[in-house]
Specification:
Helix content is 36%, strand content 25%. By secondary structure, the protein is α/β, with parallel strands linked by helices. Strands 8-9-10-3-11-12 form a 6-stranded mixed β-sheet, sandwiched between helices. It has a 4-stranded antiparallel β-sheet with strand order 2-1-4-5, covered by helices on one side. The chain has a two-stranded antiparallel sheet with strand order 6-7. The protein is globular, with a radius of gyration of 20 Å. The chain starts with a helix and ends with a helix.
């Protein structure tokens, strides 16, 4: 009996973890996202590049349902976030179900958004205790492990005001990781940092990439995007104009808009 060697050798294709399908978003009369479609597979680190005002941050906020979409759909691990299907159309989901779906998505913002009256440890344990219903001991054990992971194990009892900007952003990363999310979103994580602290945050993100963390990263750090990403997606005027490997994007971009962007932002 013979065997089809080609079919036997071909591994099954994993479904995308994140599926953005024809997403539209408007603010008043201004259409910010114009039918954006993008997929991210488990283990991928996709960098989303584009000029200021191109819709990058808005797209991330739509994924996490911090902004409502006006068309299309977004699924994470096969689940809608903030919506459900009813009679063939999307309708708003309950707050409880939305919170549960959102807990699977870690988000790191431009600003650190830490509670100034809570220590680093307390900032990190807040969501696991109240959303995941972890005990204080369980949440603190996870928080301490995450602080070690971002090289801040000695800062657990420090308040945000006692930390540098880079350290605060690493606490914010640890806070997101403590929820064990399926997907991590980074929205310009170094834009609010002094130049001398940018590297320490990028190093932590690069380590997460190497560990196979699935993420979508909005960044203006061209060298970082070139060196660590699985793919580059270029967003311009609310549209994905290119989706390619870092090598292709930085050496032979297909889109004229990508070429114009790179001419101003050489890595």
């Amino acid at each position: 009996m013979t065997q089809d060697l080609d079919s036997a050798a071909a591994p099954p294709t994993a479904p995308p973890l994140l599926v953005i399908d024809s997403v539209e978003k408007r603010f008043g009369r201004t259409q910010v996202l114009k039918g954006v479609s993008l997929e991210v597979t488990s283990g991928e680190a996709v960098c989303l590049l584009g000029r200021s005002g191109s819709g990058k941050s808005t797209l991330l906020r739509c994924i996490n349902h911090l902004e409502r979409i006006d068309g299309g759909s977004i699924t994470v691990a096969g689940q809608l976030v903030g919506y459900r299907w009813k009679d063939g159309r999307l309708v708003a989901d309950s707050d409880a179900r939305t919170a549960g779906r959102r807990s699977e998505i870690g988000m790191v913002f431009q600003q650190f958004n830490l509670f100034p009256h809570l220590t680093a440890l307390e900032n990190i344990t807040l969501a696991p205790r109240h959303v995941r219903k972890r005990t204080k001991k369980e949440a603190e054990e996870t928080a301490l492990a995450m602080l070690e992971r971002v090289r801040l194990g000695d800062k657990a009892r420090h308040y945000p005001g006692e930390l540098s900007g880079g350290q605060q952003q690493r606490v914010a990363i640890a806070r997101a990781l403590a929820m064990n999310p399926k997907l991590m979103l980074f929205d310009e994580p170094t834009s609010a940092l002094d130049p001398e602290t940018v590297g320490e945050v990028l190093d932590v993100i690069a380590e997460l990439v190497a560990a196979g963390t699935t993420m979508l990263i909005v960044t203006h750090e061209m060298s970082f995007a070139r060196d660590v990403s699985s793919r580059i997606a270029m967003l311009d005027a609310g549209e994905i104009v290119e989706d390619s490997s870092p090598q292709e994007f930085f050496t032979q971009p297909a889109s004229p808009r990508s070429r114009a962007f790179l001419a101003q932002h050489r890595a």
